[in-house]
Amino acid sequence: MSSVSYHISNLLDKMTSTDKDFRFMATNDLMLELQKDSIKLDEDSERKVVSMLLKLLEDKNGEVQNLAVKCLAPLVSKVKEPQVETMVDTLCLNMTSDKEQLRDISSMGLKTVIAELPLSSSASVCKKITSQLIGAMGKQDDVSVQLEALDILSDMLGRFGALVSFHGSLLSSLLPQLTSSRMAVRKRSILALGHLVPCCSPALFSQLTQHLLTELSKAPPTSMTRTYIQCLATISRQGGHRVGEHLEKLIPMVVKFTGVEDDELREYCFQAFEAFIRRCPKEMSPHVATVTQLCLKFMTFDPNYNYDDNEEEEDSMDIEDGLDEETDDEYSDDDDLSWKVRRSSIKCLEALISTRRDLLLSFYSSVCPALLSRFREREENVRADVFAAFSALLRQTRAGSGRPGVSVVGSEPPGAACLQVPAIVKALHKQLKEKSIKSRQGCFCLLTELAHTVPGALQEHIPALIPGVIFSLTDRSTTSTMRIDALSFFHVLLLSHPPQVFQPHMQVLLPPVVSCIEDTFYKITSEALLVTQQLIRVMRPQGQTAGGFDPKPFVFSVTMKRLKATDIDQEVKERAISCMGHMVCYLGDHLKTELSDILSIFLERLKNEITRLTAVRTITLVSASPLKIDLSTILPEALSVLGSFLRKNQRALKLGTLACLTALVTHHAASIKPAALEPVLAELPALVDESDMHVSQVLCAGFTISSNLCSKYTGELVHSPLLQGGALAAILDFLQALVQSKTSNLGFSPQSCVDGGALHRQSYHSVARCVAALCSAAPKETAATVIKNTGSPESARVLALLSLGEVGRSGSLGGSKEVQGVILEAFSSTSEEVKTASSCALGSMAVGSLNDYLPFMLKEISAQPRRQYLLLHSLKEVISACPGSSLSPHVESIWALLFQNCECPEEGTRNLVAECLGKLTLVNPAQLLPRLKQQLKAGSPLARSTMVTAVKFTIVDHPAPIDSLLKDSIGDFLKTLQDNDINVRRVALVMFNSAAHNKPSLIRGLLGTVLPHLYRETQIRKDLIREVEMGPFKHTVDDGLDVRKAAFECMYTLLDSCLDGLDVLQFLDHVEEGLKDHYDIRMLTFLMLARLASLCPAAVLQRLDRLVEPLRATCTTKVKAGSVKQEFEKQEELRRSAMRAVAALLAVPEVERSPSMADFANQIRSNADMASIYQTLNSTPSSGPT
């Protein structure tokens, strides 16, 4: 016998002791043993342990019984399936026992077993449990057994519903329970049905729904009607989209029952409406008006109370709080349930607002006034829901105006919100002084949302709101949460409104906020310091004193006290430093003797590892103050400490330190001695590194004063292939500053730059621009130097030509014949890279000397067909870089030349012509855009494709004068999606994709007409598939692939930019087809599916069963053994992409309630290959399938 078996055997012997303490201790020891991962039980030990624990469930001592139940949890995963079945059989038998205590403990045991049961052994065990529980439910004489059985059934279906196959028998046993005379049984049956519907088949779901409809049509008693309607609401919430196909029958039925005089029934009706709206927003569209009218009608349903408008208006300010309470008590009645009707109708309205952003404007005209009128609701909980619904309306407005993909037009909803501001403030400002904390919190949340949605809208109403804020900060009965909410709202108010609005109220506002700084609760102190920081900025914007008010007596002492304290919360420490920094920055001239103490504390905090980042930012703020604060007392030591920070690995600290040093050098250069700056300068060169371009950019932008940077580090950065954008601009400014400062011994020269021996191809252009910056003082001498290098090796020659172009871009070389000759000579080179560089150089030279080069260039394009492509590249550079005013005189000649070449058979040349036409159109859109449109009707297919591609290049990602013209005419260009020529349709899709990505506003209004044509292009067309014979082999060519690919790329872009304009279910139909298409398209649709899973989980769940099979097919397909390496790699990449989509689907809540998805998740777990791919794609173990 092994040591484990021997130890277990001893414990089992002790469990039979007559002493209850022995039994308790032995059971406890057994539980500790079972919790060890390493324990392995042999078959005999398994049987004995199970038998003993089941026996202990009947122990006379309650503590031993409870401990035995706890032992079942670790035991279930340690024993084999037959022993689990034994446990389940015994527990189910005990559940029907006459002994109540044994029934209860066995019920707990069954719940424990279900919670811990491994998935691998769940099916057979669940079948046993179900058969026994169905029998227990049939015992009508004992309600407690029925209730426990229904509870356990709910637990089992919640965990294993998708893995069991006997849903039909469960449904047939649960439906009769809905007619039970006991309400508790009916409610638990509804819960069990709720767990059953997500995982049952569509046929069973239809059977259940039809049963409920049939029963409701028989006009049952009101209590039964309540049960059926409540069941409808539950299965809609749990079953989601499935209820959509039955809505046409359900809605009229539920609407009819809202007319029955029963408050609870009406509540359940509105809960059902809410579930329908949230789960099936599309199918509910025809019924939205009906449901909205019902909600508006019943949200005011309060038969036992008379809301007298006049009395409320006149007396609400003067009435005493006590009288208010008395009045409420007079009208409140324990039997009055009308508040439930009002609350459920308001929640239903909130669901409408949250799911139908497209109806936002109509909600402002219909729902908004109704909600405003309910702000005076007498029931506190209902009033909180009114505030929540109105906040949802404001949130939708903000989302609609802030997101590019929203289909709401312009800024109309924010404008509608703005119009309601006076009414909102009028309704809320009195409630801000009410005793009800819940109401005040709702008011502050709503007002905060309003300030975010329409910044500045409360400007005229600040005097009305301030008393309410002050009341919540000073009232002794106010809770901590209430104070934090009030301060948070006040902070938002200060940030979103101009300072002058608050200045007249400073003497009233400061004392309560300052008293909150002294509060004992750290969160209140922290929030109050944040508000005080903003108040200081308000007091003295841009250094101007507001009305002679001196805030120092109010603010300084309490903030100083918090600043000095070291035994306080980290958040308070940081905000105290920041607040005092703002005080010094804006009110430093009021602080005389105190200033040195404050600065010395800042220096201490700078040396502290915990507060150093906040201190760095604060010193940056103070050093840039317009009050010219004297920092000479701390500068030498501060510079030394800041220099040491540049060696730290903390990136935020490094960037903050560089910003601080820049501010100090800029504003306090006279106070800094060169010796004090040396430690800092010594650290700078090492920071210039391509591994962190942003730090390099900040460094170059801020420290053009030091030639120490011109070491090998800067040279390496100039040669880096990663140098671009802001970092490149900073380097160029830095090099020009060096040239102007006439610094000697730079460490590298233009000549060394042009020597491009070991340069990466990506760095040629950036190095050329750096050469031009260094040569800005003597361009002609540089040109001579560069020209010498044009005969060098190829790489140096490419760099020399590019450098020549960049030097000439400034116009300093004029129309030099020598330079022109060198460039034209390079056009004849055998190297493609040299020819491309010469093309760029010619374009850059022409930008600097337009009149010298452009006529020559246009002449050459016509005269030299072989060089046409390169010369068009040069022309494109000219059109892109020259200002419109310079190009205007040449527009007609350029346009005529481009039109001559718009039907060129070479696609590359045609694309270049299109790009030139598009960019040229931006020079004079009113005149040139109609010409493009005209050519659509007159031109050949090649000309039409060129015109459509040209339009693509007129769409830029920033506001442009052409936008309004383009919006009016883009519909005509998109009609080419119906063109007979497949290539024209492809370029039309590419243009549409560009518009959707860069300027979605152009095409948002056209989605209704464009999408059918877009979706048609996603279909595989057999007439475009042909077979090509290649020797003995036949190869299939799909001429429609490029068009389909372009269509799917458009769909992917629309997900980000125009989601609200899409019918997601229709969109998913085409995604589903794409999952079975070509490799490239499948890769795209996997990405789309993952995106949709996070953006529209409800819609994805509706289509889940159809989406799983293509994913499963991709993940399980294997490449034939004799295939080439590329085929294996492509299939592996496909599998990984498909698995990413699966991971995104599994992250959707309740997704594994779908039987097909649960089956697929099990397949992934059981297949080692798929499981390893899945695990590598998931960084966190919790995101895996469970």
UniProtKB/TrEMBL annotation:
Keywords: Repeat, Ubl conjugation pathway. Pfam families: TIP120, TPR_CAND1. HEAT repeats lie at residues 49-87. The keyword Cell cycle does not apply. InterPro entries: ARM-like (IPR011989), ARM-type_fold (IPR016024), CAND1/CAND2 (IPR039852), HEAT_type_2 (IPR021133), TATA-bd_TIP120 (IPR013932). Gene3D superfamilies: Leucine-rich Repeat Variant (1.25.10.10). One of its GO terms (biological process) is SCF complex assembly. Residues 1002-1164 form the TATA-binding protein interacting (TIP20) domain. The keyword Repeat applies. Belongs to the CAND family. This is Cullin-associated and neddylation-dissociated 2 (putative). The lineage of its organism: Eukaryota, Metazoa, Chordata, Craniata, Vertebrata.
